[in-house]
Design a protein that fits this description.
By secondary structure, the chain is α+β, with helices and mostly antiparallel strands. It contains 8 helices and 28 strands. The strands form 8 sheets. Strands 4-5-8-7-6-9 form a 6-stranded antiparallel β-barrel. A 6-stranded mixed sheet has the order 16-28-22-17-21-20, sandwiched between helices. Strands 2, 11, 23, 24 and 27 form a 5-stranded mixed sheet that branches.
Length: 494
């Protein structure tokens, strides 16, 4: 596969002598996919003076080719990390318990219903309290109609010790501490291998078709591709064709972000074959990431959010640049939060920080003023930077408005792919998030009528229309290897 060093894209007039069937971009993609598939992805993830080809193609622009995996099947599996020991969540506490109860006092049994069977009889489990007397040993367990019924017993301190009722309420999580065994024991506790769970996802073929009419008098894009061997391929594409490719890439990106698993497959309306949607980026973050709501963004909120995630996982000074993406109003929210924080610190900005000569002013004394914060230096050596994702501001996709301000809610969503600041690197040092694509699916075909990419078709047109059709297909999925280092801050409205 040819790697690309450079792309040159310019908007020019159609030249029938230099722009022919033989060097038309889509036709070259059909004939030489090993050469032109990668350039196609780069072209439509780029911004040029000719046209913003990246519109809606945020993921390709952000990840590039180096973080794309190609597979032969429509499904794939990987080991997903979860945070430390997997906890059990209480579904039902002890029967009849009140706020003044003393469950476990005098070594009485504590019966609770939990969501999963993770403990072995004899293991010590606790609710995560700072009071480490709040620990029990598992003495019995059995399956129930929903979940599992566990019997716990206190053993720390004297017989009057009990578990505080707040730690036995539905929703509270209990975590394994250790396994004690006596002399001549024949078994030990479970090895905590559940910090890795098997995840899977599906690829779906996406397809678009569009028509290009007679374009001899229209503008085209001239594209020069230089690979790592110094070879230059001069191609071209009709401007309207480029816009259609844009739309295709936008839909691919939307699928990667917003797709969600269902409990039954869809059916292709033409073939009747099943279609199995996969879990997109947002659903995978919801599964194992750190998702929190906010009403008003602040520096303190950001610090607390990152502290909760990286505490005990990253040493002070090892936190890198954390990158999040958001919309127009998310960028403004960060700016407002940091300006408020500066005011609280009694920081005084100099005139040079907020005011300068306006080089485009109406006269020599014209000034321009103002500034916007886009990054924040976090404690322990890290920093937080926001980048703009135009899909967060797509009015066709997101119509919900904050009833108080009238501001689009999705525009204020902040998504973070790696809270460790590893530049999309997990704690293990490997790429954390990948685009996954099916081999030999990405490509295009052309059906020519009385016109084709090179002009009039005089022999054997496929149809009588004054246009040619372009059919594009692609597939995409998302793999979040370690969701515990991902996160989202989502604007909440009343």
């Amino acid at each position: 596969m040819a790697r690309i060093n450079k792309l040159e894209i310019s908007r020019v007039k159609f030249d029938s002598h230099r722009m022919t069937d033989l060097n038309h971009f889509t036709k070259n993609l059909m004939i030489k996919p090993e050469i032109f598939a990668d350039p196609a992805r780069l072209i439509f993830a780029s911004r040029t003076n000719a046209i913003d080809l990246s519109e809606g193609n945020f993921l390709e622009r952000m990840f590039g080719l180096d973080k794309t995996r190609y597979i032969d099947d429509l499904t794939w599996q990987w080991d997903t990390k979860v945070a430390g020991y997997v906890p059990m969540t209480i579904l039902e506490g002890p029967a009849g318990m009140t706020s003044t109860s003393t469950p476990g006092k005098y070594r009485s049994d504590i019966n609770i219903l939990v969501d999963r069977d993770l403990a072995q009889i004899g293991e010590s489990w606790g609710p995560g309290s700072s009071d480490k007397s709040q620990i029990c040993v598992v003495v019995d367990k059995k399956p129930a109609a929903r979940g599992f019924l566990y019997t716990l017993r206190t053993y720390v301190g004297n017989a009057e010790m009990y578990i505080k009722p707040q730690y036995l309420q539905p929703g509270w999580q209990w975590t394994r501490f250790y396994t004690m065994r006596g002399e001549a024991a024949e078994s030990g506790g479970y090895f905590e291998s559940s910090s890795q769970i098997k995840s899977s996802n599906n690829l779906v073929k996406l397809r678009k078709e569009f028509r290009i009419t007679d374009y001899a008098a229209q503008a085209v894009l001239k594209i020069a591709i230089t690979d790592d061997k110094g070879r230059t391929f001069n191609t071209w594409m009709d401007f309207a064709e480029a816009r259609s490719w844009q739309q295709m890439n936008k839909e691919v990106t939307m699928h990667a972000l917003y797709s969600r698993l269902g409990d039954q497959p869809l059916r292709d309306p033409d073939s009747g074959y099943p279609i199995n949607p996969g879990a997109g980026l947002y659903q995978q973050i919801e599964f194992g990431g750190n998702v929190e709501g906010y009403t008003e963004l602040s520096a303190e909120l950001l610090e607390a959010f990152f502290d909760r995630i990286v505490y005990s996982r990253i040493s002070p000074g090892d936190l890198g640049e954390v990158i999040g993406f958001t919309g127009h109003y998310g960028m403004k929210a960060l700016d407002k939060a940091l300006k408020t924080w500066l005011g609280e610190q009694s920081v005084i900005l100099t005139t040079a920080d907020i005011m300068s000569k306006d080089p485009q002013g109406v006269h020599k004394n014209s000034l321009m003023a103002g500034y916007q914060f886009t990054s924040y230096r976090l404690p322990n050596g890290g920093s937080f930077k926001l980048i703009y994702n135009p899909l967060n501001d797509d009015r066709e996709l997101h119509r919900d408005l904050d009833p108080r301000t009238g501001v689009p809610i999705e525009s204020q969503r902040i998504t973070i792919l790696d809270v460790t600041g590893g530049n999309n690197q997990s704690i293990s040092g490997k790429n954390n998030i990948f685009l996954v694509k099916k081999n030999k699916v990405f490509g295009a075909s052309i059906i020519e009528g009385r016109y084709g990419p090179g002009g009039v078709i005089s022999k054997n047109p496929k149809h009588a229309g004054d246009y040619f059709e372009v059919h594009i297909s692609d597939s995409i999925g998302i793999q979040v290897t370690d969701p515990t280092v991902t996160g989202e801050l989502i604007k909440r409205v009343n």
